[in-house]
Amino acid sequence: MTPSVPSISADELFSGSEGREKAVEMFRENGFLRIAGIYSKQDVGEMKAEMERLVAEMDPASLPKSVFVASGDVKKVSPAIRLLSVLLPNFSTSQTSTSSTA
Description:
This protein has helices at residues 10-13, 17-30, 41-57, 79-87, and strands at 7-9, 34-36, 66-70, 73-77, 100-101. The chain is α+β, with helices and mostly antiparallel strands. The termini are far apart.
């Protein structure tokens, strides 16, 4: 069973100082704030379509690389690629080039 994620509605958040105070307290307790209803389903659909378009046009080799350590190996992977692989499950990270150094 998936645990519930605490959230505040957009209406409640923007209704006055009590909503803002509740939002601040939720953020302090959880380290994040989920605002339910901040975007319409149409807005989300448009953002997703634009993200998919950007990914389709992207050249992974042209993205800047950053170095991180995983299991003792140093690998170069773009932070944008890591983010996209989480946000878009159909995005293939095999398109990216990774290299190890000793």
